[in-house]
């Protein structure tokens, strides 16, 4: 069976779209359509049903994908990296993307041993939606995402759970009624400056809902789309905010920040590491993905 036909079939199967499949394999849509028809003729069975927003695989397609995908992906990976590169897992650079703070504090330091072994990284920072779009389009190889991507085209597994903590500088915290906060009443925070990552307070809202069972009433005094900048401002006494524990752990340990509430079950957010399904076995991508999953056990 022709490898190019199978690659096109898997692209259509995973994306649910002939247009997206054509973009992924670098062919015209008419060529993709012709290849799918050729494969259907060889098998004597229909593989997809057309629907308004793409194609839906038949049970024959489900069975074919399950049986062939690992082998086709492995052959494609060998072809893409070239025969001469088989003994060098880092022959090609890895295009890695994720949120700026986690990438800086956890991901890049964790990958230092691989860089010393020859890994070449090209790093993109940004928000989950735009990074996952880049992954699907083939511009990125690996994405650390706060959103679990859907569909067959992308494989995503949990990387870590980030724990959130409500913090302030010690001088500011000393004037807050901690007993009322511990009882689930956020009223002592009402008149304090609130720092937020965005105008709609996504991290703060999640924390308030989980710990206090309500929505925050404050309009942010400072909005800055950089958690490290928020950390610096809060340490300086600018106000209160919610930060991932991994980011502010050194300041908490040093006493530069204090937790205002210590709930029995702190709010968590799962982060995923995602790659395209047809690239899971590519040597360099597999090495980075496996290494991060191993190191993240200690995060």
Automatic annotation (TrEMBL):
Which GO-annotated molecular functions does the record name?
Answer: DNA-binding transcription factor activity; transcription cis-regulatory region binding
Q: Which domain of life is it from?
A: Bacteria
Any Pfam family:
LysR_substrate
Q: Which UniProt keywords apply?
A: DNA-binding, Transcription, Transcription regulation
Database matches in InterPro entries: LysR_HTH_N, LysR_subst-bd, WH-like_DNA-bd_sf, WH_DNA-bd_sf
Q: Where is the HTH lysR-type domain?
A: 1-58
Question: PANTHER family from the entry?
Answer: HTH-TYPE TRANSCRIPTIONAL REGULATOR (PTHR30126), HTH-TYPE TRANSCRIPTIONAL REGULATOR CYSL (PTHR30126:SF39)
Q: Which family does it belong to?
A: Belongs to the LysR transcriptional regulatory family.
Name by which UniProt lists this protein? LysR family transcriptional regulator
